[in-house]
Amino acid sequence: GNLRLVMDYKAEIPSKEMSLVESWQSLGQTVMYLIIDRKVEGIVSVEDKVKETSGPAISKLQKSGLKVYMLTGDNSLTAAAVSKQLNLDGFEADCLPEDKYEKVKKLQAEGHTVAMAGDGINDAPALAQANIGIAMGTGTDIAMQSAEITLVRGDLNGIVRARELSNRVMRNIKQNLFFAFVYNTLGVPVAAGILFPFFGILLSPMIAAAAMSFSSVSVISNALRLRRK
């Protein structure tokens, strides 16, 4: 287990090994301890390398005005090394599942909209609580069930693409609503004969129906532009 297990069992780590542990942690590695009869008999260091795409993806999110934080069960030294590597806005280490859940809840209480990305069982409560839960397709089933969005490739670039697509969709919706409002505001009175007393212009039912169809086609064509981006 981790250092918390060592503390729970009140086991001691020799000073020589402790300096080695700290050097591993400063490199962003996760250290696990083997305890037998309340004695640390073995130490294992593993490293989950940060994907090359993670740094640029996080940078794009930050440039778009978002704050990116990391909640991790790893110790503070390992978390600090990863946070520095990715240039995060902050991090919290030694987090249990309930700690992640409470952090999300606290941010929401402060008025923030929270998107949570995770792939493990311990992320499920926070994913369910977040305004937007984002699960990695390479993660656990329970994480995917707790989230609203699943990134099939498990790549943070998927979050960037999803946000960009969402922004384009919202702009497209507003454009369509504006176009439909203006078109109908001008077209319906003309079709009703408002110009007839002044200019003798009166639309035939066929032309009015064609004009209405053109309105629908215009809105659909504008929406289909999203497929080309």
UniProtKB/TrEMBL annotation:
Q: Where in the cell is it found?
A: Membrane
This protein's record includes keyword Protein biosynthesis: no
Q: What is its main location?
A: membrane
> Tell me, what is an example of a GO biological process annotation in this record?
copper ion homeostasis
GO molecular function terms here?
ATP binding; ATP hydrolysis activity; copper ion binding; P-type divalent copper transporter activity
Keywords, alphabetical = Membrane, Translocase, Transmembrane, Transmembrane helix
- The transmembrane segments are 177-199, 205-224
Instruction: Give a Gene Ontology cellular component term annotated to this protein.
Output: membrane
Q: Which InterPro entries does the UniProt record give?
A: ATPase_P-typ_cyto_dom_N, HAD-like_sf, HAD_sf, P_typ_ATPase
**What's the protein here called?**
Uncharacterized protein
Q: Highest lineage ranks of the organism? A: unclassified sequences, metagenomes, ecological metagenomes
